Amino acid sequence: MRRRQLRRLFATSAALLISLLFAVPFIWLVASAFRPVTETFQAHVDVWTFLPRRWTLENFTSAFSRGFAANLFNSLWVTGVSALVGTALATLAAFPLAVMRFPGRDWLFVAVVFAFMIPFEVVALPLTTVFTQMGLANTLTALIVPGLVHGLAIFNLRQFFLSIPREQLEAALLDGASWWRILLQIYLPLVRPAVIGTAMILAMAQWNAWLWPSLIITDNSKQTGAVAMGLSDSAYTQDYGLAFAEVFILALIPALLIFFGQRSFTRSLSHTGGK
């Protein structure tokens, strides 16, 4: 019994130490965002390296005065719409691929899997030309549309739909239930964690997107937060306090999203290799 307790104590201590090592960069980021930049690059290193001597909001004030609030709103709007609409479309695509039986269903699923394996960089430039010719350049619509249909989201939801016993479907069909009723009242309540996890996957993909916004948006007021942060640098000067504040904001929002939805997100990812 004592040996088991010592082993558990050692494992817990090792886990805490590893967690602390992973947390050190984030702690330093938070401290640098809330202190003057002169303290961040001080010559000597001590405990105050991770704790500001003087707390200040100057870095955040500077960021918002340069229009970062508008860029942050663009990111929130694009991410929210893409997650909601993209999850709905993925659900409508995954349900028939998993539940309904029709000719060519398996081949259609293979095409979906193959589509999301193609790197976006391959089609980014041709897609930019198409959107520009359609007059959608420098619009939030151009940022949203390419992320609405996501092969990984369809694949993820299909795996959950396949895990539901088919007896429930057959019983509902015998009772005369329509396909819409089967989807909304039987399948969706059972795959709620997968739906939440899929929405989080789509949200994270849009929140961290860099290539597509940098290609299709040239107006800085329509740009997303991640790209606008990079464009705030100049060739000869760098406001590190401003950069730390913007990175802190951009990291805090997805961190909160994952924190409150981690259970659904973990269940969603762990089940994608199922039936």
From TrEMBL:
PROSITE patterns: ABC_TM1
CDD domains in the cross-refs: TM_PBP2
Pfam families: BPD_transp_1
Keywords assigned by UniProt, alphabetized: Cell inner membrane, Cell membrane, Membrane, Transmembrane, Transmembrane helix, Transport
Record's subcellular location: Cell inner membrane; Cell membrane
Membrane topology category: Multi-pass membrane protein
Highest taxon in the source lineage: Bacteria
GO biological process: transmembrane transport
Keyword Transport applies: yes
One GO cellular component term: plasma membrane
Gene3D superfamilies: MetI-like (1.10.3720.10)
InterPro entries: MetI-like, MetI-like_sf
Domain ABC transmembrane type-1: 72-261
Regions crossing the membrane: 76-95, 107-128, 140-161, 182-205, 240-260
Summary of the function given for this chain in its UniProt record: Part of the ABC transporter complex UgpBAEC involved in sn-glycerol-3-phosphate (G3P) import. Probably responsible for the translocation of the substrate across the membrane.
Oligomer status and interactors: The complex is composed of two ATP-binding proteins (UgpC), two transmembrane proteins (UgpA and UgpE) and a solute-binding protein (UgpB).
Family, as annotated: Belongs to the binding-protein-dependent transport system permease family. UgpAE subfamily.
Protein name in the entry: sn-glycerol-3-phosphate transport system permease protein UgpE
Organism: Erwinia typographi
